Amino acid sequence: MTSLKEKSSLSSEEKNALEQAFEEEEILNAINSCAPDKSPGPDGFSMGFYQKCWGIIKQDILGALNHFHNNCHMVKSFNASFIALVPKKKERLKKVIGNLVSGFQNAFVQGRQITDATLIANEVLDWKQKSGTPGLLFKLDIEKAFDKLSWSFLISILRQMGFGERWIRWIKYSFSTIKYSILVNRSPVGFLSPGRGIRQGDPLSPFLFILAMEGLSRMLEKAKQLQWTEDFEVGNGYGPPVSISHLLFADDTLVFCGAKKSQVQYLSLTLMLFEALSGLHINMSKSTIYPVNEVPDLEDMAAIMCCPTGSFPTAYLGMPLGAMNRSSQVWNVIVEKFERRLASWQQQYLSLGGRLTLINSVLDSIPTYFMSLLLMPAKVKQRLDKIRRDFLWEGNNKDHKIHLVKWAKVTLPKQYGGLGIKDLALHNKCLLLKWHWRYNQEAAGLWKEVIQAKYGSDSHWCSNKIASHPDSTISQYREDNVWNLILRRNLNDWELEEVFSLMATIQTSAINSQRRDKLIWRHSRDGSYTVKACYLQQSSKKTVIDQWPWKLIWRTKLPPKVICFRWITLKDSCLTQNNLMRRKFQIVNRCYMCLCNSESINHLFLHCTVATGLWNMFFSLFGLTWVMLRSLREAFVCWSSWKVGKSVKQIWSLVPACILWCLWTERNKRCFDGTPTPISTFKARCLITLFGWVNLSPVLSVDSFLEFISSIDLCC
Ligand SMILES: [Zn+2]
Predict the structure, then answer these.
(1) Which residues form the Reverse transcriptase domain (predicted)?
(2) Do 111 and 98 form a contact (C-beta atoms < 8 A)?
(3) How far is the CA of 112 from the centre of ligand 1 (A)?
(4) What is the pLDDT of residue 156?
């Protein structure tokens, strides 16, 4: 057996730490961590009361709690529900629960994640499927999780796990004093004292529930020890095999079992015993039995369990289970979710900026959970890209519109010139890399044991072992300040360069042989891997990145459509006549504003007489003069580096976008209606637009704006 079950009870230090007297700080933290408007208890005081009046009532509360600590009994008048929440039992329990709960359980345990359970389930099932031997998998539906739990069962588990008697008495007391106050016309009229069940709202409940499920876990282990049932064993001859009899995530339970009638009978018996002892009911009609490989007499075994049969692929914790590797079918749910979302936006008019916000905040997060475990097939990526691309540029319109900027550039992070839409393939890679980081970082964990047993500790999972002896330390390869690397194998030609670059990097490093070696992720501040930092770092290596201080334009507060238009313009992609010609449109290229030059971005927004007039108006308003720059991008950089007074700084930052937006609106009016706006009206309209944006921004005052434009002469 593996090391999983060895540590299943508390050490005496842990036991004592749980039972320490309450300290003032601990209690205050607990009170402050509660919502102030949490409904008042039978004593009529809300948490807000305790938070506000802490200074006054502190002594009384500390006294009461210490009385509780010593006597495990509360003064009657003191609200019983207060006890459950104040002594920060949760925080204390959280610290030890990882040691108590076997690796088969994942919910709420620090350091264990929901994806761990799905990874283990899939790897174990895959192993079994490949072995060709028959097996059974049960998905159990445990009903009414919190409120039917038997206290005596829970307490006997606490005792088995080595909790001290004082702690057990506290918990017992919390149970026995739970009172459900019935509110009639908003005033309490009485109390009910229930006989069982842990409270839904108690912050401790999920943890106590996990401990109760640990009871099931131990009973299933016992059934295996008694040879009532067999579990699934994973092992490729690399060290001891790992056997898995079940996986629990809160009340989501999988049981792995041999495909024999006698075993199913015993399993049924074990579950019945669990029901009787714990009070938790397993709803067999909602549970499912899945055959792994060819299982004879499946129907008979389903009849023993009184549950329906199912087939793979199925789902576990929202993730596919038992699907073929790289199957694109399992991604259908994601594609459908995308389409459902889009359909729900069908009726709304959305600007480009609005659509961008929806893609960034809604669509891009839909596949993240799947991508954190599965590699997205290229076909699926193309499909999701097409959906997002069409929605971005065409909205809900069915007619084709020009996609102004290449998708590869759109999907760059904003600081590299993109719109921050996720590059799904890269994001997927960064999410999966996290597993490698965790594999090399975490000392233990059931998921890691499964991976090791299945692929060996020398597999692609650990790429850090290039030294001749895998357990050697870095300092062993450096003598008298000279590196002496003895490599495990001969290098390939393409690896040489990497080794040279490594040598150059470490040449001058000082080595401290006293400290333990550890992996460090260079691209984050604290040296640990984050998906976000990796994504940014990998994006910076792309050839399509656009080096320009893009952060200048993403900081200002403007309507989203203006932000997007400004981005498109600075990417030289808005449909000026120059750009239309580049796209092979046959037109006579002449600026609509001055009617003489050809219409390029720089001409229309900077050098055209109308544009220059507008820029100059703003310069004179701020009392400045300037020489017109060559390009729009230069003008933006120059504008933002100009030092202006604090009072007008905010207005100043909105001006270039305002000029762009107004010129483009006027240009389109001239192009489609053929009627130019008189220049003074146009300038006034530009100021009104700016005024509207100033109103949008809460930090700007209208007064300062009026003062700012009082000196204006619109006819120049
Ligand atoms: Zn012009």
Answers:
(1) 67-321
(2) yes
(3) 63
(4) 84
Ligand 1 centroid to Cα of residue 591, in Å, is: 5
How far is ligand 1, taken at its centre, from the CA of residue 206, in Å? Answer: 69
**Rounded distance from Cα 547 to ligand 1 centre (Å):** 28
24-62 residue pLDDT tens:
666 666 666 655 554 444 455 556 666 666 666 666 666
Residues 6+ apart with CB under 8 A from 173: 68, 72, 73, 74, 83
CA of 596 to the centre of ligand 1 (A): 6
Q: pTM of the predicted model, to two decimals?
A: 0.79
Residue 659 CA, ligand 1 centroid: distance in Å: 14
Q: Summarize pLDDT for 290-323 with one digit per residue, the tens.
A: 999 999 999 999 999 999 999 998 999 888 998 8
Q: How many angstroms from the chain centroid is the CA of residue 509?
A: 36
3-state secondary structure of 233: strand
C-alpha to C-alpha distance for 583 and 577, rounded to whole angstroms: 10
Give me ligand 1 centre to Cα 698, in Å. Answer: 36
Interval between CA 175 and ligand 1 midpoint (Å): 80
**50 vs 226 pLDDT, higher one:** 226
Residue type, 6: E
Q: 101 pLDDT band (50/70/90 cuts)?
A: low
**Both tokens of residue 357?**
């916000």
Instruction: Kindly give the interhelix angle for 560-570 and 632-641, rounded to the nearest 10 degrees.
Output: 120
Q: How much distance in Å is there from the Cα of 599 to the middle of ligand 1? A: 7
Of 10, 57, 8, whose CA–CA distance to 31 is shortest? Answer: 57
Helix (H, G, I), strand (E, B) or coil at 292: strand
Tokens of 545: 């990145």
Number of H helices, E strands in the chain: 30, 13
Distance 348 CA to ligand 1 centre (A): 36
Distance separating alpha carbons of residues 204 and 41, to the nearest angstrom:
17
Q: 399 Cβ partners below 8 Å, 6+ apart?
A: none
3-state SS, residue 508: coil
Distance, CA 628 to ligand 1 centroid (Å)? 15
CB-based contact 712:621 (threshold 8 Å): yes
The residues placing their C-beta within 5 Å of ligand 1, an ion, are 591, 593-594, 597, 608
